[in-house]
Amino acid sequence: MTPAEAAAARPRVEGDREQEILDAALEVLGEVGYDRLTMDAVAHRAKASKATLYRRWNSKATLVVESLARMKTTPAIPDTGDLRSDLLAAFCGHGGLTDHDTTSTFGAVVTAVSTDPEFAAEFRKQVVAPKALVSRTVFERARDRGELRADLDLDIAVPALAGIVLHRVFVLGEQPEQALIERAIDQIILPAVRPQAADPSRSQQAENKK
After folding, report:
1. Does residue 178 have a pLDDT over 80?
2. Taking the mean position of all CA atoms in its chain, how far away is CA 190?
3. Among candidate residues 146, 131, 125, 123, the one with its CA nearest the CA of residue 193
4. Listed residue (55, 68, 72, 61) closest to 35, CA to CA
5. Domain residue limits, the chain
6. Percent helix, strand, coil in the chain (nearest 5)?
7. 139 CB contacts (<8 Å, ≥6 apart)?
8. Which of helix, strand or coil describes residue 151?
9. Out of 3.90.1150.10, 3.40.50.300, 1.10.3720.10, 1.10.10.60, which CATH number does the structure's domain 10-60 have?
10. Whole-model pTM?
């Protein structure tokens, strides 16, 4: 039997053992960050061999992304009938930006998104995309209710709130608390996306030009 055949004949890593390894990957990630994380370190933490890990995950990128994807289930899409309430529910609830685990793990991998193409592709597909779908659905429902400007570019508007909050957290050092989310929604997002009321002074100027 060749080494490849022997490896294929070994039992797959699954069930509780698989989850133990994923949990170990998250622990190591939180301690040292993605750049310094190694398969050896995860194997040691999980009390497994490195060969065991490679039978299930072909790289540390696939291992870490799967551990992040499984860390939180995709939150239910809120549907309160009001954009502001939906945004608060999506961003302040379980798995939202006020969740310490969510922001801390994002901080641990943020550099890898720009330096490791394999990791970036998997991270965007398995972790970012499900969360982005929640936000986009919230905005699409608001549009269908008539809460949004007719000319609004959803590709720009949908990720804006997350971008504002993450900038203030990772660049300015603020805590991702609900008060920060509310300020961003009330002072930036809603004024930008809602239909604009007619400005009487502009209407009068237009009349005067006739």
Report:
1. yes
2. 21
3. 146
4. 61
5. 10-60, 72-193
6. 70, 0, 30
7. 83, 148, 154, 157, 158, 193
8. coil
9. 1.10.10.60
10. 0.75
Which residues are CB-neighbours of 90 under 8 A, at least 6 positions away?
Answer: 75, 77, 78, 96, 134, 135, 138
CA distances from residue 143 to 20, 24, 51, 186, 196 in whole angstroms, order as listed = 43, 42, 51, 18, 14
- Domain 72-193 classified CATH 3.40.50.2300? no
In the numeric block, the tokens 């592709």 are attached to 121
Paired tokens of 50? 């490195």
Q: Which has the closest alpha carbon to 24: 12, 57, 75?
A: 57
What distance, in Å, lies between the first and last C-alpha atoms of the chain? 90
pLDDT at 113 over 80: yes
Angle between helices 100-115 and 160-170 (to 10 degrees): 90
Mean pLDDT of 89-104: 80
